[in-house]
Amino acid sequence: MPKTISILIASSIAAIATTTSAYAQMPPQQPDHKAFKIGSLDVIALHDAQFVRPNDGKIFGVGHSPQEVGDVLKASGAPTDTITLSVDALLVKEPKHVVLIDTGVGGALQQSLQQAGIKPEEVTDVLITHSHPDHMGGLVKDGKLAFPNATVRMSSAEWTFAKKNTQLADVVEAIDSHVKTFKPGATVVPQITSVSLKGHTPGHVGYQIVSGKEKLFDIGDTVHSSIISLAKPEWAVGFDTDEKGGEKNRIATLKKLAADGELVFTPHFPFPGIGHIKAEGDHFAWDPSVPAAN
Q1: Residue (of 120, 201, 125) closest to 163 by Cα position
Q2: Looking at residue 121, what is its pLDDT?
Q3: DSSP of 177-190, one letter per residue?
């Protein structure tokens, strides 16, 4: 593996933070997958990695003390000194497309695909919610395209943003001739429409998957922690390039999801990241719920 790619994979979790002085801890990565149906579509949640951030006020609860953050964690029965996030992707099998939404950091994704019976060369389209390394780092493996037959699709604003990120230079170079951009709101492949979710990055989008009367909304990094992002959605998140915009989008999206009861995929919630957002007074809660496989 070329040194630059190795460095990208090894440091990508730290790179998505606004400050990289404290590296995320990376536990051993274990492959996993969970298959289910959305209408007539076969959908598979895929585990890539998980990382652990210290409760130090630099990412979660920016502007609030670790004690305040710890109190929120304690109320949910979670450890108060760290915040653990999953890194997951989503695969959708359409009649003429095999669509992968995000690629993780390049941890256990390939093994998870293998468990699910999917070969990398079968993937026809890779949809990127945004260009942080834990969402597009898995596009390259051993210096080559990890999904050699796939068209890589992301919003035009996000592709511009990605090309300015020096830590993604090798990935950008590898995928350049395979990228097709779109404007948010476009149907990027049949039955999957992009949705603008500004704030996290300049071109951050989600993807609405529809089959018949059933829907699933991949909301990307609108939320991160299944505890803090929902209990305190107004708290700034260090991962957001536009903290105020991220807060505005987070609150508005959570309110809509709680009102609609729509099924969502959240790539950083505990695997498999499928469920519903519930309103609880002035905040929200996570209700894991995976549809049946048949």
Answers
A1: 201
A2: 98
A3: GGEEEE-TT-EEET
Model confidence at 124: pLDDT above 50? yes
Contacts 24+ apart (CB under 8 A), 254-261: 254/222, 254/223, 254/230, 254/284, 255/279, 257/217, 257/219, 258/284
Sign of the dihedral through C-alpha 3, 5, 10, 14: positive
Q: Is residue 293 part of a domain?
A: no
Q: What is the Cα–Cα distance from 152 to 52, expressed in whole angstroms?
A: 29
Number of domains in the chain: 1
Q: Does residue 245 form part of some domain? A: yes
Q: Taking the model in full, what pTM does it have?
A: 0.91
Q: What domain range includes position 145? A: 3-288
How high is the mean pLDDT of the chain? Answer: 91
Per-residue confidence at 28, pLDDT binned at 50, 70, 90? low
Looking up tokens 């959708």 gives: 92
pLDDT at 133: 95
Domain-located, residue 294: no
pLDDT of 19 = 30
Considering the domain boundaries, does residue 221 fall inside one?
yes
pLDDT > 90? residue 25? no
Q: Provide mean pLDDT across the span 33-51.
A: 97
- Between the alpha carbon of residue 32 and those of residues 211, 245, 290, the distances in Å are 25, 33, 15
Amino acid 126 reads V
As a whole number of angstroms, the distance between CA 35 and CA 260 comes to: 24
Residue 106 to residue 161: CA distance in whole angstroms? 20
Residue 205: CATH number of its domain: 3.60.15.10
Is 250 in contact with 222 (CB distance < 8 Å)? yes
Cα separation, 174 vs 193, whole angstroms? 26
